[in-house]
Amino acid sequence: MPNLYELASEFAALNEAVSRDDLTDDEMAALLDQIDESRTDLKVKVDNICRLRANLAGEAGVFKTEEQRLGQRRKAIENRVGQLEDWMRSTMVLLDVPVIKTDLHDVKVHPGRGVAVIDDPSKIPDLYIKVERTPKKKEILDALKKGEEVPGASLGEGKAKLVIR
């Protein structure tokens, strides 16, 4: 059985041949039979691909569930690591012990670096405010569909959607 690429090129060639005016009735009938045969091949191929797709989607779902479970476990472990570090840091600061040396580890508490604390964001000068310019795509699309001109934008066609039931 031909693959999808071969079927596509075969359909293109058959469509081109059917559109010619110099075909006899017998040649036209043969071409139409060939098109029907190719459509049957395409149906079988698409059905097989849909089955493969369903199997792969199921497998991907299993992986996704496992990723979520492992992600939750990783986060729990990372949180526990953070709690242990916080406990060591706060205890060393509370007891004013900047360095602890053991046979296996050297643990040091360094002073924190400066941070900006924002007490009232409305009083911050514009020089220190970040403004992001983002096009409103939905509103631009609506305007273009109404025939309005929007500088810097044009109406295009999105990707075709595949529906499998």
Detailed description of the structure:
The protein has one domain (4-119). Helix 1 (4-18) packs antiparallel against helix 2. It is built from three helices and two strands, in the order ααββα. 57% of the residues lie in helices and 4% in strands. Strands 1-2 form a two-stranded antiparallel ribbon. By secondary structure, it is mostly helical. The protein starts with a helix and ends in a 20-residue tail after the last helix. It has helices at 4-18, 25-94, 137-145, and strands at 99-101, 106-108.
Largest sheet: 2 strands, antiparallel
Number of domains: 1
In the predicted model, the low-confidence regions spanning at least 5 consecutive residues are: none
The amount of beta strand, in percent, is under 5%
General form: elongated
Could you give a short description of this structure?
With 165 residues, this protein is mainly α.
Helices and strands in order, then pairings?
Layout: H1 4-18, H2 25-94, E1 99-101, E2 106-108, H3 137-145
Antiparallel strand pairs: 1-2
Helix pairs in contact: 1-2
Descriptive keywords:
mainly alpha; 2 strands; 57% helix; 165 residues; elongated; two-stranded antiparallel sheet
